[in-house]
Write a structure and sequence with these properties.
The chain is built from five helices and four strands; from the N terminus they run αααβαββαβ. The protein has 147 residues and is an alpha+beta fold. A four-stranded antiparallel beta sheet has the order 2-3-1-4. It is elongated, with a radius of gyration of 20 Å.
């Protein structure tokens, strides 16, 4: 599917606030609510819009630490880890990457003891490195058209 300027405007509106009504989006981009709805449905069907989520504050939910953990898998341990990581509640995002490490995970933890326990579960799969997140510099940046 090729995105025209109108679709990009709709995507911009949705990325800023996915809860706004189609009528509100239509007012912003200059088309009717049914036309907005049709375009959104086409972008969903094409896999451009992957879904809608509620962003929850880990701190307000009781998690005191957010960390980035990299894993350099031991020989023969990468595939088992790729299955196991899906079961960890602490892991918000997990990426398989190139370079010296194989995996980057974004995790939330209750406290330092929880971090220690979690790392103990990971070290059977490989060597880990942990960085504690102090703050977000950018977050959920809008995807823009390629120039």
């Amino acid at each position: 599917m090729i995105l025209d300027a109108l679709n990009w405007k709709i995507l911009k509106c949705l990325q800023q606030n996915a809860r706004q009504s189609n009528a509100e989006i239509g007012r912003q981009v200059g088309i009717s609510s049914p036309a907005v709805s049709e375009r959104i449905k086409k972008m969903e069907d094409a896999g451009i819009i992957l879904g809608y989520k509620t962003v929850v504050s880990p701190l307000d939910m009781g998690y005191q630490l957010k960390a980035i953990i990299t894993l350099r898998a031991f020989i023969g341990k990468l595939k088992p880890f790729l299955e196991k990581v899906k079961t960890y509640d602490e892991v918000l995002n997990c990426y398989r990457i190139t370079g010296n490490e194989n995996i980057v995970m974004e995790v939330v933890l209750k406290n330092q003891k929880h971090l220690e326990t979690f790392i103990d579960q990971l070290i059977i799969y490989g060597e880990t490195k942990t960085q504690i997140v102090l703050s977000h510099v950018t977050r959920f940046k809008e995807i823009k058209p390629i120039k």
